[in-house]
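Can't attach files on this board, so I'm pasting raw text. These are the components:
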Amino acid sequence: MLEIKDVFKTFNAGTINEKRALNGVNLKLNEGDFVTIIGGNGAGKSTTLNMIAGVYPIDRGTITIDGVDVSTWPEHKRAQFLGRVFQDPMMGTAAGMEIEENLALAYRRGKKRTLKWGVTNEERDIYREELKILGLGLENRMNTKVGLLSGGQRQALTLLMATLQQPKVLLLDEHTAALDPKTAKTVLDLTEHIIEENHLTALMVTHNMKDAIRMGNRLIMMQDGRVIYDVAGEEKKNLKVSDLLAKFQEASGTEFANDRMMLS
Amino acid sequence: MNISSLLSAVPGALSQGVLWGVMVIGVYITFRLLDIADMTCDGSFSLGGCVCAVLIVNFNVNPVIAILASIIAGSLAGCVTGLLHTVFEIPAILAGILTQYSLWSINLRIMGGKSNVPLLKSKTIFSGLVEMTGLRNSHVALIIGVVIAIVVVMVLYWFFGTELGASLRATGNNENMIRALGVDIKKTKLLALMIANGLVAFAGALVCQSQKYADINMGTGAIVIGLASIVIGEVLFSRFKSFYMKLSSAIVGCCTYFLIRAVVLWLGLDPNDMKLLSAIIVALALATPVAMAKYRTKKAYSPNGGTEHAGN
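---
Top answer:
Structure tokens for the assembled complex are below.
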């Protein structure tokens, strides 16, 4: 479904701020894989997701989605394959537009925007049903401006928008990091539900090791712009946080350093 | 200084307000929907007037077709600004200034080196109705202007409700989101700038036909008039939230602007002071919310824990 081969990326090359963000990333996702990504500060987790989405051009290597080489495609063109939820709840929705308008924009992801009316009545029924799944009562507020919603509500809406058109790969970039613990749990439960229900292939960056172990069928750990640990199936299910910490020290030779990482 | 002379100036002021209002809608699209202060518009307003006048006077073109040509010319000017901004990533304000600057030379070339082209006895879209009904020029301009303004508002309301129009609004709202949803924001920004400047040139052509001449300086300060009108309109229509009303508020704001101007002239002030007044209106309107927020922040602070304001 998704194949990343020898991808390198250096930011600010040739300057004093030169930073090699990706140092030969290799990753292959099979259809239906739900992979959680953990790693220390600057390990390249978010950068990997951004490279898949085409936010920045890569220096070397190839990225293939569903058999199509998209390595040099611009971000808006890759969007036809990808659903994305960002860390910042403000980033995934248009605050000045109504809930249904936001959904309608997402419903047309990867399609040509024509002079047909922006939201049709049949669509409204679909949106209402989908919004019910969120369990936030948003189905009764479809004409509310998204800017009036809370961070958690906006993030849940973004999740729905990202999956309204079934994506080939769903990219979740620490999408609960900015939420309070209770809201974060609601959004995570929704995430699991939606991924399971639609048999999605997903990549989720998280700073919560427990979530990383609990969710998905596969876990990878990144360090210094590389995948240093890749575990799936039974072995992953039986992992403990202490195992991950040990694995990290063994692979990198240093203490695990992420000031936002939740160890318990 | 009597009231009747002021009253007799009202139809003229309103008709100017409505015709310039079409330009204000163009400015509204870039300033409010895309959050760009598009400096092209001073130049594209004159461009619309110059193209229209030259086509009518030198080539004897039908006044309606002359207007259509003006709209196309204006959107080309917007296209230049758009390309400078999106493809070459020149900041929007600077891109607009560059186009505006170059348009001054281009407009002079269009008018054959003359800074002023009078329409004299040529037919305009207003002259037919004047002859037919015997109404005064300003009344006819007001009637036709209102009809045109209504049509423009309706067409834009439709457009911004379509898939394409919605993606354009979303571009102004959240670029990150709309890119992630597969829209090329370079194209939407370019399109918005073209539509906006097409409207601005449309207004330039209308004003040229109603005042019966085109002048190289007719668009000078158009951007500030546009911003002032938007701000006035928003204050007047602050209770209305629908998109229809927001577009209409631009026109009503512009009419109010020209009424204020008529009063200022009636009071015997120097018309040249109008630019100062416009700038003050815009600066005040943009500064007030910021100043209010700062004042509130300052007032909310109290050194001993803020029990008075926080409530616990």
